[in-house]
Batch of 2 targets.
Target 1
Amino acid sequence: MESQPHKQGIQRRLEALTRKWWLYLLLLLLFFIPTYAARSYDPRQSMGLIGEVLSAPLIYAFPVLMPVAKIATAGLIVGVLVYGNGVRRAFNVYVAVLYGALALFQTTAMTETYGLVVISGNLVLILVVALVSVWEVVAERNDFGARDRPLWRWWVAPLGIVALLAPVDASTMSPDFSPVRLLTNEAGLTFCMMTPVVLAVLTLFYPTVNPAVLRVSSFAGMLLGVVNMIVWFAVETWGWWMGVLHIPLLVISIYAFVLGHTRAIGAPASVSQ
C-alpha cells in the first residue's frame, strides 16, 4: 500500500528527531511556561496555585471514571501480556485518549480564588506525549507478540503496580491501603501514576516498541518525577508519602529513557502489520 511507505517515512523522521538533544531542551523550556489564571496572581504564589489545580482538576469532576480507569488499564495490560498484538490497537488507543484527556483536564481547574487556571507547562508537555501516542495508533510500531524475556526485566512490574494502586488518601497525603480506596482513588486519571504503568509495559516489550513514544514519554516522566521529588522531599515534606509514590515515575522513566536511546542488537526496523 502507498500509505505504508509514507508512514514509515514519518516514523523514521520522528525517531531521528527524538534523538536530538535540542528537542529535550525545548521541552524543558516549554515546561516552564507560566501558569495561566483568569485573575492575576503574585508569581510567588505559583506553587500554591499549581497545588490548588492539581488537588481538584477538571478530570476529577466525574468520580465514576476513577475505578473505571483503573480497571480498564489493568484489563488492557493483562490483555497485552496474554493476547499480544490482538489487543495492541485497543491499548494504543486507550493510552492516546488517556494522555489527551490528562493534557486538557488534569492541568486545568476552576478555582474560587483565581477562576480558570491552566498549568500551561504541564499541558504542553503532556500534550506532546499525547500527540506521539496518537501517532502510534496510526503507525502501530509497537509489537506485543509473545517472546521470552529474562526474569530481571520484570523489575518494573512491582513499581508499576504500586503506581496503579497508589495507596494514598489525597486529602491528607497519608498512606491508605483500604481495598475500596485502592480501587477508587484518582491514580488512574493522573499523568504521574499512569506514566510508569505505561512505560513498564513498553519496557517489557522493548526493543519492539515505538522508540519515539518511549523517549518522549519517559522524558516527560523524568521531568515531572524530578519536580515531585523536590516538592515532596524538600519543600512540602509533610507530604513525603506522595513523594514515595512518585518514585516509580522517576525510576521507570529514567530506565525507559536510557532504553529508548540504546540501539538494540537485532531490533527490527519496523513491525509486521
Note: DSSP finds twelve helices and five strands in the chain.
Target 2
Amino acid sequence: MTRISVHFKVVELLIFTFFSQFCSENKAVMQVKWIDIHTHRKWNRPDLLFVRQAWSISLAKPGYFLSNGIHPWQAEKAFFDVNWDSLLQNPQVLFVGESGLDRLKPNLDAQMNAFRWMIDLATRHQKPLLIHNVRMHQEIQRELKSVDCPIILHGFSANQQQLDAWLKFPRVYFSLGMRELQRGLLPIPLNRLFFETDTARNDVQQAYHHFCHHTQIPLEELQKQVIQNFNEITANRLFISYQNH
C-alpha cells in the first residue's frame, strides 16, 4: 500500500469516526420522500432512505444504513466470532436482523437458537428487530411476548386472524413489498406500516403508488406517515423529515 493510499484511508476513517460520534450525540437530520425499510440492493436516489441487509460494515457510511443479523437460512453457520455488540453500536446499523423462523427450511432448532440470540441483542441495544417469518406466526409470537423493542415483520403475509393476533403487539410494524400487496390488502393501520423492496428490482415507489391507488389515501399523507413511523421505531436517533421539493 502506498503512502498516499494510507493517508487516504486515515482521512476516510477520521471522517467516518466524526460522523458516527455526531450521530450518537445529535439528531442527524435527513429530508426524504421515500423509505425502503428492507432491501438487499443499493439505491441511488437523494430523496430515498433505504436500509440494506448487508454484512460488510465498510458499507456503513453517512446516509447509508444497514441491518445485520443471522438469517434463519444461515442459522447453522458459525457466527460466534462476530463481535455483535461492537457491530450494533455503530449508529449506521439501524436494525437487528433479518432473523426469525422459516417452516420451509430444515433445522428449526438451530433457527430458534439464532433467533433467541438476535432477540437478546435487539433488546439490549434497543434497536428494532427485523423478522423473517414463513408460516411460523404462533411460534414467533411466543418468543416475542416479553420483548420491549420495535419489531418489523418484513414481507408480511397473513390472513385476517393472524393479523389480528399481531396487532395485539403494540410495537409491531408491518412491511409490505409488491409481492405482498398484489395478494390483496389487509387492514393494517397506517401508523404501523412500512414498504420494502427486499430482493426485487422494482423501486419502493411502486409499492407506495399501488397502496395509494387501492386505498385512495393521498400519496403525501402516506409518505409523511411512514416517515413518522420510522422516527418512532428509531426513537428519533436519526430524525427524518419530509422533503417538500
Note: Helices lie at 3-25, 84-89, 108-125, 137-144, 160-167, 178-181, 205-215, 219-233.
